[in-house]
Amino acid sequence: MANPLRAEVFRFYKNLLHLGREYPKGGDYFRDSLRASFLKNKGVANPQQIRELIGRGEYVCRELEALYYLRKYRAMKKRYYEE
After folding, report:
1. Which of 24, 39, 43, 57 has the fewest C-beta atoms lying within 10 Å of its C-beta?
2. Cβ-proximal residues to 13 (8 Å cutoff; 6+ apart), any chain
3. Inter-axis angle of helices 6-19 and 27-40, nearest 10
4. Predicted confidence band of residue 1 (pLDDT cuts 50, 70, 90)
């Protein structure tokens, strides 16, 4: 029987993969580490544990978005304000 959370996990993986394109160390580095972390948790079958892992991943998503916004803010600040 297929896990009902499979589609959610797959969608989440694609979302993280999309966010990782602008990662400071490079998209390839991010993709490799993302793949390794998903493969590490491949055997998890308990739906409660899967939801906890998705929650941890959503936290990573928010942190990545904050990192990107901060980088854009710093770039704009550098362009318009001389220090």
Report:
1. 43
2. 34, 38
3. 160
4. very low
